[in-house]
Specification:
With 195 residues, the protein is of the alpha+beta class. The chain has helices spanning 17-20, 152-182; strands spanning 38-42, 45-48, 54-61, 70-75, 78-84, 87-88, 101-104, 112-117, 126-132, 137-138, 142-146. The N and C termini lie far apart (144 Å).
Length: 195
């Protein structure tokens, strides 16, 4: 049998993106060339109240088409969001971030994106980083602080109302005391008819 007349069939197994690669985006493992690309995210410090959303806007400088790249965003050691070769990869995401992240991919060709973390909780506090591991581009840490649940405006309103009530009660007590001091003293007399 001649090899030229044989039909060769090659089976290539399809690999799910979540099992294909394991990336490590810690600054100590990613090698970057001096003066190469930078991933700048803003704001670097975020303060939110529980239930609010957090938006991180990031851009590679100088501009670079990152549409086909892999992007990984983490909070400390937990994976917040993974984007691989034009698709989100929720299987790599930590359970507490599932269905809570949205990556705006509209400007990936220009090297920019934004990541939204919905419905912030106190447990979401920490330092967030994003990176393109295959290119060695890592962002600076973004620090998220989550408040107690009462907004500062609400606390101010409650304080003003409490102070107003306190001052009002003091004025009322002072007026009542002044009115009592001006009235003639009460003298008890016996009614002779009752005796």
């Amino acid at each position: 049998m001649e090899f030229s007349s044989m039909l060769w069939i090659i089976f290539i197994p399809l690999v799910e993106p979540s099992g294909a690669f394991q990336f490590d985006c810690s600054p100590s493992t990613v090698q970057t060339e001096p003066g190469a690309f930078e991933l700048k995210c803003s704001p670097l410090t975020v303060q939110k109240e529980p239930g609010q959303d957090m938006d991180l806007s990031c851009a590679v400088e100088p501009s670079l088409n990152i549409k086909a790249d892999s992007l990984e965003c983490k909070r400390d050691d937990d994976i917040v969001h993974v984007y691989r070769s034009r698709w989100d990869d929720p299987s790599s995401q930590h359970q507490k971030f599932k269905n809570r992240t949205v990556l705006d991919r509209q400007n990936l060709e220009d090297g920019s994106f934004s990541l939204t973390l919905k419905n912030i909780t106190k447990e979401d506090e920490g330092n967030y980083t994003c990176c393109f591991p295959m290119r060695g581009i890592v962002s600076s840490a973004i620090s998220l602080t989550v408040g107690s649940g009462l907004s500062s405006a609400l606390i101010t309103v409650i304080t003003v109302i409490g102070l107003g009530l306190g001052v009002g009660l003091l004025i009322l007590a002072w007026k009542n005391r002044a009115a009592l001091s001006r009235s003639p003293p009460c003298i008890l007399r016996r009614n002779p008819a009752v005796l």
